[in-house]
């Protein structure tokens, strides 16, 4: 599904802004058949949970409804008219007037509906979108809904971030020709100084295809005809971490010599590979520095915000980081586009988080090994089907982004239970079938060390989340360093694969200080990170470090978290803690060392 864009043959109208909003309390049937009759309004994009002072809205479990009037531009006569929803968390349904036109499961990927036959150019229509936030044992991510004796529905889930819901990303009205470019797939390679761009185009309708590759100065550097082909670019500018260069592939659908549709696809020429214990980008070893992040901010929840997008990337640049993981779901497409343009490397993750009942029981269950003996007892075929859908949707959406160097198909699943390998092996195979050009991984949880984990054998890269010094060896950094290195040596000896520490860190209250190794202080967070860095520098197959987390973020209420997770090196409003300055010193030094190494003449 192509991202809607404005071209010479396509137009785009943003439907962002204030929509009428109502919580479905069960008293109104078929709310899409007329006006909602509500005094509430909610902004799009934004999660709805933190907008209102009424706790029954924040804690609502079930459907909510958004509604507005939309006018189709009068110049769209004869064009196909599309309603596109960038995300609806977690189940969305779309009505045009009284007619249902689309339904979608999965809260972080886009969906659309062709509404041409239901609307008229120049006329208005009523657009109603329902969003259901319920998570069940068969959804990705999973959860459980319980109805209490007083009739209230409550939601529990097994991931440690707040279940924000609603229309957190943009909604669009788009036009496109009846005969149009339906999909574009680009795969790049490097042959000496020549860039190689392998392209495939799908067209809806009967049309010929022409393509032209344009450089950043607007010059045509290659061209071809046909729905598939290979373009070769002499002296190509490569897309590099920290030094992005983007070409534009202009794709044209042609009927009887006339261009009936055009679509521009950005292209970054680069290669990704795993070589023994090394991770290579453009044939050179790459070391990941950065974060696990969240789409999270006050009031907006998971609502996309361009101001936060720009500021977060500025902080990533300031701190010297070169990468992040989209923990624990696909991020907004605007984020991926921005990473493409600014040379930030991305590990792209599905929404498969919380597939672990041992975590759901809390820290005691995590360390004590509670939960199902057989993975299928908790997560069965229906969830596996949903998981396949999420992998397909993620790769279909993000396959052309040069910033994406690896797919992560799950975060911290229960990989120690029987049946886990049976569940995951076909999912790894599916990801590789859909995209054989990128490594595939998952993120391993702490209670699944190398002699226990049943799934790491399928991964191209070992991604590990570890909390020695916090959940284990809490307050004892000497023991933490010993046990961390011992485990990493075990992974290295057993697999010899590249390893990335995709989570490590400590909860920290900004402004809390101590001269001792006191947990929750800014000093302890910085010292704990330093322990990990010393170990990383001694382990040859470590190829990256991504701190948990970029910024403090909201979690479900309870006694384990006080106003959210405080592991951010920045506060929720993006103020640096002491650890941010310590990381800046390390990562800028690492970046400088690698630049100097690249400049050395070969012996």
Automatic annotation (TrEMBL):
InterPro entries, alphabetized: Beta-gal/glucu_dom_sf, Galactose-bd-like_sf, GH, Glyco_hydro_2, Glyco_hydro_2_AS, Glyco_hydro_2_cat, Glyco_hydro_2_CS, Glyco_hydro_2_N
Enzyme Commission code(s) on record: 3.2.1.31
Chain ranges of the Glycoside hydrolase family 2 immunoglobulin-like beta-sandwich domain: 179-270
Domain Glycoside hydrolase family 2 catalytic: 272-590
Magnesium in keyword set: no
Family label: Belongs to the glycosyl hydrolase 2 family.
Name the UniProt record assigns to this protein: Beta-glucuronidase
Glycosyl hydrolases family 2 sugar binding domain residues: 14-177
Gene3D superfamilies recorded: Galactose-binding domain-like (2.60.120.260), Glycosidases (3.20.20.80), Immunoglobulins (2.60.40.10)
Keywords: Glycosidase, Hydrolase
